[in-house]
Amino acid sequence: MNDPSPVTGTSGHVATGVWRTARLIAGKDLRIERRSRVIVNQVLPFAALVMVLFAFALDNDDVLLRTAPGLVWLGTIFSLLILVQRSFAVESADGALDALRVAGVNPAGIFLGKSLALAVQLVVLEMLLVALAMVLYQAQLDAMGAVLLVTTIAPATTGLAFVGTLYGGLAAGARGRETLLPLLLFPVVAPVLIGATRATEAAFGAGSAAIDEGWPWVGVLLVFSALFGVGGTLAFGPLIEE
Amino acid sequence: MQSPAGTEAGTEAGTDGRTGNRTTDRHTNGNEDSAHVATTQTPPTASGSAHRAAGSARAGTGTRFTRVLGVLTIAALAVLALFALVLSPPDVVQGESVRILYAHVGTVWVAYLAFIVTAVSSGAYLWKRTSSLTWDRIAGASAEIGVLFMAITLFTGSLWGRITWGTFWVWDARVTTTAFLFVTYVGYLAVRGLGGTHEQRARRSAVVALLAVLEIPLVHFSVRLWRSVHQDASVAGSTDVKLDDEMLFTLLLGTVAFTMMYVWYVLHRQRVLAMEDALDDKGLDLALAERRNEGLEARDMTEGTTR
């Protein structure tokens, strides 16, 4: 944190304080990622590898074209797991999260900041996966499809980031968190996988899905994102204050 | 603590119930060790026999209420078995396979009830005015029983599905949501096992339980929407069966019997959890004191022989 002044969570400035904290935390996380290059050197290659492995497993151009949307989101969710673990490995090393709490930083700000940083990383990842789906699986994307895809990615990504941060914070510092996190995370993100896959199917025109079929799913994703955004902001404090 | 006095206390507690009920006895014996710890108020330096006496005063997790409830539950289950397997008629469409449903419906009802109890007690724990570790233990006990009953539900359901629909599994919205509910609460139990202080465990798991309440309707809604888009196999038709009185009675009896079983189990399990917590808190101190006493006794004896 380059700002020495403490972020107060009291009277009057609560809202601005939370957002400022969130911006600072997100900036810190992204700076760490930029300098360590773990995302570029490890996570993105992993995601690309998963896409190639899917092609080996399914071994049929028609099947790949049909399943491309689902594979994009499966790849995203697998990589989300790594990103979340990475995001909280940074915090639990050297007791960074404890230090933030001792400094009286608002937990809602920490939650929103870490979610924001995670969302930025996820967007980069999703762009790569969509590009790979178009190159490797021959998925097609027209102008309207691109609009739908961008509208899908926005709420899906924020939803995934909120859930990831929430459960990542829960498992942070606990024994056996590597194995616990997927058990907690995968059931919760199922609505995102269903909704985002169906909307992306419509965007790609996979399985003769029309563009119109995609929009209701964007609504599902928005509801999911809003609920876990609010729920996470409220729950994150009690979760990390131990 | 495998001392003769300990086992003696266990059999004593088991026989004074006179329920003839094996499950109660097992609970009592199995948790004899922690019973000592939970009820002993004597200081750790006191002699071993004194605190064993204090422990046997109230050993086990049974009370008069749970013993009566246990007997009634077993009786109800026996009557249920009689009605479900013998007295009720086979279904016109499903034949004998309808008998599976008497276990299926009762257990799924209990599983949902258990998860509601978990959510409510988690809320009660987090609410400052009612905050108590007892709520946390009720939530945990209830979730454990809920997961068990949900597993039975999924198992009986897939057996029934194999006979009636020809497949063990259908991607029906309700079936899928049930499976998700099961996995979610398996995760909840894993969170309870994370370690840390009792308060840490309680707060973490309470938050997870309340998040599950948020998650389940979303999963159900999205799965239903998904299935309505990809309508492959229609299941709804086959469940529209007219029930005769005996079948309805058996279903109702199953629900009541399994609910009694749930209450019985949760009471015992919650007390066992309380004992485990107490064991965590005091077990090491007591064990140290006992070993120290043993050491002292051994030294006295060797001094006695050398003298």
Helix content of chain A: over 70%
Q: Report on the biggest sheet of chain A.
A: none
Main beta sheet of chain B: none
How many β-strand runs of chain A? Answer: 0
Strand content of chain B: under 5%
Order of helices and strands of chain B: HHHHHHHHHH
Most extensive contact: A-B, 30 and 30 residues
Low-confidence stretches of chain A: 1-12
Would you kindly provide a written description of the structure presented here, covering whatever features stand out?
The complex is a heterodimer of chains A (242) and B (307). With 242 residues, chain A is mostly helical. Helices cover 81% and strands 0% of the residues of chain A. Chain A contains eight helices and no strands. In chain A, helix 3 packs parallel to helix 6 (143-171). By secondary structure, chain B is mainly α. In chain B, helix 7 (133-164) runs antiparallel to helix 8 and helix 7 (133-164) runs parallel beside helix 9 (198-229). Chain B starts with a helix and ends with a helix.
Features:
heterodimer; A: 242 residues; mainly alpha; disordered N terminus; B: 307 residues; Four Helix Bundle (Hemerythrin (Met), subunit A); 10 helices
How is this fold's topology laid out?
The complex is a heterodimer of chains A (242) and B (307).
Chain A: H1 14-36, H2 38-58, H3 61-92, H4 96-102, H5 107-136, H6 143-171, H7 177-204, H8 215-240
Chain B: H1 4-17, H2 22-30, H3 32-39, H4 48-57, H5 64-87, H6 98-126, H7 133-164, H8 173-192, H9 198-229, H10 245-306
Helix pairs in contact in B: 1-2, 1-4, 3-4, 3-10, 5-10, 6-7, 6-9, 6-10, 7-8, 7-9, 7-10, 8-9
